[in-house]
Design a protein that fits this description.
alpha/beta, seven-stranded antiparallel beta sheet, six-stranded parallel beta sheet, 925 residues, 18% strand, 29 helices
Length: 925
């Protein structure tokens, strides 16, 4: 049978490779549907690139390539990993993203030299992998595993977020025994007093009774069977209190997959029941949610349900709004206790639940057994030691037990903050118990009157009020834990200057209860002058919040309250609360030399204005914070970063920054305003956009910084500008390598061990010293450890070729650290410390080595001068720089088998990014 031109061309390239004994062969982007069998004769190949073809199989002859070290089969149509790959025992890199692979074979453990596996890509897509074979944990040399954009089982997905060691631990647990879980959440939402609790009673077949208003959340479980599959499913029913003040708090406990019941009362109509708004609230938080709309309180004397079902289906789709029911939770005395519509609703709930991906998944049996054992205790919380003891009874070692706790926390089964000194020794097993404690604060009239200010003694009374029943009171031993949890959930923060004893009786601000009106004009203008200060530049960006599905303006319920808490370290009242300027839709911040900011919540959007000598740093950071918070917490929403029209302040026209940048790259000079239709200069519009600002080169910044580093206490416009640029350079470096922080620290200095005797131009192999740095304080560990050179200090023998390969990354890191060390040490008043001065000199030596190797190579200057903003947003460096950091982590782990990294602690910040910080700063996360 004749072969197509692509096949013939591939044969020709393979023949050339055979004749030349080639070690590399590129057959990418050739539209190949079949790989020639002659590939088996290329026995010298070390690298084979088959990316971007139409391959679904590989010939058996591929297995003869016993010297192959790198295989790239990305962007093909494989549904399984081809069997011939199992014979490539020297393979250390396998790239296979953007295929149709759903199951990985057990034989992957045969590839015992594998260091890197890529089955996913944030940019290009993944596969359809839900689970991994336990045998993958046997790959001892595996350093990097990319599973981005794959529909991983929930437990595996959370282990993956923790890093490769966590994945291996999970697979070890899964190898012993597995259990099928037929269990999911049932979440009841709706306005207050529409009958949610009575409906829950009916689903549980409990006797009828009236209920007072629900405080927070109540959780009860029942079983239901899907008629079609005969599968019995456990529904964990979450009954949410309906008061509006609870909404921001309750969103914390929404999760997908789950079945949602939006409950309303026909007597008041769907508009009064806010049916549409509740569906939006759920869908914006969890886009894949399955919703059943339930009308309650029916019966002969009650109003029949009148709701526009077609409108809701048109708005949200039948995949979201599954069905409508009309029920009566109260038994009909004339119908032998029959409850109208309840049996049919229960069947529908089971039918929908059976379709959820969470139902029927397999998990390690030990995970399921421990969850059952914890529930059986009936305790709302347990000490961590007791939870670990229960795990040991179910044959978990402590590593897997801690992973189980971390995964369960991320999935919402329990609450535990392992890196928080105030919380790490307690595990909260019942979120309803915690939510109710919060609701007592939100409902407190005295705290409302004080616009959210409440001292600890008042909180203690609210949580242990003697007039409430015993089972709704909380002992004093838990009160500080609750306070810390409220801070963790972005509900409150501790304020300064209002308490005589801030340790024993601190005052907190409950953000949801701040004033709902703008401050008095004299207070506002004192904090935000009508005129710019000399030397300041003003920039404004608007975070336009829209529905991700249709692009229409949308409300992120509770967003601004979270911002008030998350940004409080920049509050004007961080030293004395009385200087604060904030209200429910506005906030003024100050970041010293980075400038002053005004945030306003106008409509659904957040307007951010910054005044500074270099406003790009603070404005970019605040914009990123809003965008991250919106898009990570409300998965159904999108944050479009825009700049305002320049014609008049009255024009409400907005320009998307990303589109302006794209048009500029197409050499377009002007763009019309979507409101006033006036054509405006793209260059002028982008002057408000930090993302479009041309990055200053690292070399230029270092030259400018050299002029002011000995005068950091002299504050002027030039110094403020340079210090802001130094902050931006550091933040960009950290953001560029977020993924690598899962496995180890990113900051280090590297210099020759014998100092000034070393000749940076004439050497082949030499001893070097690596010093780790704290990513919070931006200081090296010896400085933080009072000059101790034993912690976080490692000696290696390295060769010149390795330096050549890693020079771009080393140049970026070393140059950045040479900038931040004087600033950080000055801020902490350790500028005269001997360890600091010594390390400044050592950084200089390391820089000399890198510069000598780099020479005048333009490629290095390009890398170190411009960090691509798109890469920063994705948190990825180039493949070469990522590989460098992974190699360094491997070197460190070989020297430091306990992975203690000199006492650095891995913490998780508010953006769910890992940082490696000195233990003294761990409590701040």
């Amino acid at each position: 049978m004749p072969h197509d031109p692509a096949y013939l061309l591939a044969e020709m390239k393979i023949e050339e490779a055979i004749q030349s004994s080639a070690t590399e062969l590129a057959l990418d982007a050739m539209s190949l549907s079949k790989l020639p069998e002659s590939i088996g004769k290329c026995t010298n190949l070390k690298r084979l690139d088959l990316e971007g073809n139409n391959l679904r199989t590989l010939p058996d002859e591929l297995g003869k390539l016993i010297n192959l070290e790198m295989l790239n089969i990305c962007q093909n149509i494989f549904v399984i990993l081809p069997e011939p790959i199992s014979q490539l025992t020297n393979l250390d890199r396998l790239y296979a993203y953007q295929n149709n692979i759903s199951i990985l074979p057990d034989w992957i453990s045969n590839l015992h030299k594998l260091k890197k596996i890529v089955f996913g890509s944030k940019l290009y897509g993944g596969n359809f992998i839900t689970n991994l074979p336990p045998s993958l944990a046997q790959l001892e040399h595996l350093e990097s595993l990319n599973l981005d954009d794959n529909p991983l089982d929930p437990e595996l997905a959370e282990a993956y977020k923790e890093g490769i060691e966590a994945v291996k631990a999970y697979l070890h647990a899964n190898a012993e025994a597995q259990l099928i879980l037929n269990e999911t959440k049932l979440i009841l939402v709706g306005e207050g007093e529409v009958g949610k609790t009575c409906l829950m009673d009916a689903l549980l077949d409990k006797p009828w009774q009236e209920h007072p208003s629900t405080h927070g959340i109540e959780i009860q479980s029942f079983k239901a069977s899907d008629i079609k599959t005969q599968k019995e499913i456990t529904l964990n029913g979450w009954d949410f209190g309906g008061q509006r003040v609870y909404r921001p708090t309750h969103q914390l406990f929404f999760s997908a997959p789950a079945v949602y019941l939006v409950v309303w009362k026909p007597r008041e109509g769907p508009q009064q029941g806010f049916v549409k708004e509740w569906i939006q609230l759920v869908k914006r938080r969890e886009p894949s949610a399955k919703i059943i709309v339930v009308a309650t309180h029916g019966g002969p004397q009650q109003r029949q349900p009148d709701i526009d079902r077609q409108e809701l289906w048109d708005l949200f789709g039948k995949d979201t709004v599954i069905d409508f029911f009309f029920v009566d939770s109260k038994p009909d005395p004339k119908g032998h206790g029959h409850r109208k519509g309840i049996a049919e609703l229960k069947e529908a709930i089971a039918r929908v639940a059976a379709t959820l991906p969470e139902v029927g998944r397999s998990v390690p049996k030990s995970f399921a057994d421990v969850r059952t054992a914890l529930q059986a205790t009936g305790a709302p919380y347990l000490p961590l030691d007791q939870v670990l003891a229960i795990c040991r009874l179910h044959h978990m070692d402590d590593e897997i037990a801690r992973l189980f706790i971390t995964i369960s926390h991320r999935l919402g089964h329990l609450t535990h903050y392992e890196n928080d000194p105030a919380l790490r020794d307690i595990v909260i097993l019942r979120p309803d118990w915690l939510a109710s404690a919060m609701s007592y604060v939100l409902d407190d009239e005295a705290t409302r009157t004080a616009h959210g200010l409440v001292d600890f003694s008042r909180l203690g009374h609210l949580w242990d009020d003697p007039i409430r029943p015993a089972d709704t009171r909380y002992p004093a031993t838990l009160h500080r834990i609750f306070l810390r949890l409220m801070e963790r959930f972005d509900l409150s923060y501790r304020v300064a200057g209002l308490s005589k004893d801030e340790d024993s009786n601190p005052v907190s601000l409950i953000a949801q209860l701040v004033p709902d009106t703008t401050p008095k004009e004299e207070d506002f203008t004192k904090a935000w002058s009508p005129n710019l200060a000399q030397g300041d530049i003003q920039q404004t960006q608007i975070c336009r919040i829209v529905d991700a599905a249709n692009g229409q303006s949308a409300n992120a319920e509770g967003l601004f309250f979270q911002l008030i808490v998350r940004l409080h370290k920049y509050s004007l009242g961080r030293i004395n609360y009385n200087d604060s300027v904030h209200w429910q839709r506005g906030l003024i911040l100050d970041a010293n030399y980075n400038g002053r900011a005004l945030l306003r919540h106008i409509g659904n959007d957040v307007h951010i204005t910054v005044r500074a000598a270099f406003p790009e740093r603070f404005l970019g950071m605040l914009t990123e914070e809003v965008k991250y918070l919106v898009e990570s917490f409300w998965e159904g929403l999108r944050c479009d970063v825009t700049v305002p029209c320049l014609t008049t302040p009255e024009c409400k026209g907005l320009f998307e920054v990303s589109k302006l940048i794209e048009n500029k790259r197409r050499n377009r000079n002007d763009q019309p305003c979507p409101i006033c239709n006036e054509w405006q200069s793209i260059e002028q519009l982008l002057s408000n956009a930090p993302a479009a600002t041309e990055a200053i080169s690292l070399d230029s910044l270092m030259k400018e910084f050299a002029q002011v580093k000995d005068k950091l206490d002299v504050v002027n416009d030039n110094t403020r500008r340079i210090l802001s640029q130094v902050d931006k350079q550091y933040a960009d470096l950290i953001q560029l390598f977020t993924d690598e922080a899962k496995e180890g620290p990113r900051l280090f200095s590297l210099f020759p061990l014998d100092g000034n005797k070393f000749n940076p131009k004439n050497w082949i192999r030499h001893q070097f010293r690596l010093v780790l740095w704290c990513e919070h304080s931006r200081l090296p560990l010896p400085v933080l450890n009072n000059g101790d050179m034993k912690k976080g200090v490692y000696d290696f023998e390295l060769d010149k070729e390795w330096f050549k390969k890693t020079a771009p990354y080393l140049k970026l890191v070393t140059g950045t650290l040479s900038l931040v060390l004087p600033v950080a040490s000055s801020a902490l008043q350790v500028a005269n410390d001997a360890a600091t001065k010594a390390l400044q000199a050592q950084i200089g030596l390391g820089k000399d080595v890198i510069d000598a190797i780099a020479g005048e190579a333009s490629a290095l200057n390009e890398f170190s001068s411009v960090i691509d903003s798109a890469d920063i947003e994705r948190g990825v460096g180039s493949r070469a720089e990522n590989a460098t950091l992974r190699e360094l982590h491997a070197l460190l782990k070989a020297k430091d088998p306990d992975h203690s990294f000199g006492g650095l602690v891995r913490v998780l910040n508010k953006r769910n990014e890992f940082l490696w910080v000195h233990k003294r700063f761990a409590g701040e996360y």
